[in-house]
Specification:
Blueprint: H1 2-15, H2 28-47, E1 60-65, E2 69-74, E3 81-83, E4 86-94, E5 97-101, E6 105-112, E7 115-123, E8 129-131, E9 133-134
Antiparallel strand pairs: 1-2, 1-9, 2-3, 3-4, 4-5, 5-6, 6-7, 7-8
Length: about 140
């Protein structure tokens, strides 16, 4: 009796080990590697501006309010950005939209045929968001 119960327990435990994975299942590691390579390819494409497309951008300074005022400065050609006097990464998403990111904020800058149109900000964490006012010195 003990031997048959022991044999039944061993068979139940080992049955999970010998089950084959279907061919269509992929490991989590393979999925993560594919997502990472796709993401890096997309980022490379986003950062390259199309040739022959003029940037309608001039140096601008924006002011936002998040528990106090903060400024965003974007240089000519949208190659350099500063948020709260700290360097930020700027990426061109398309001909009318740029995204400025730092460790705290994601800032969207919209252009129209005349240049700057509007800008808004969101926090990376949380639901805080708001608009910017263009500062003309």
């Amino acid at each position: 009796m003990k031997k048959s119960v022991l044999a039944g327990v061993v068979v139940c435990l080992l049955s999970g080990c010998v089950m084959a994975n279907p061919a269509h299942e992929v490991s989590a590691r393979e999925v993560h590697a594919k997502e990472r390579s796709h993401k890096s390819d997309v980022e490379k494409v986003e950062q390259v501006a199309a040739s022959g497309v003029p940037d309608r951008l001039h140096a601008i300074k924006l002011r936002g309010n998040d528990s106090g005022y903060f400024t965003v400065v974007i240089g000519n050609g949208y190659t350099l950005a500063m948020v709260k006097d700290e360097p930020a990464k700027i990426t061109r998403k398309n001909e009318n939209y740029y995204e400025v990111t730092n460790k705290a904020y994601v800032i969207g800058v919209y252009l129209d045929e005349n240049g700057f149109s509007s800008a808004s900000w969101n926090r990376h964490k949380g639901r805080d968001h708001g608009d910017f006012v263009l500062i003309t010195d």
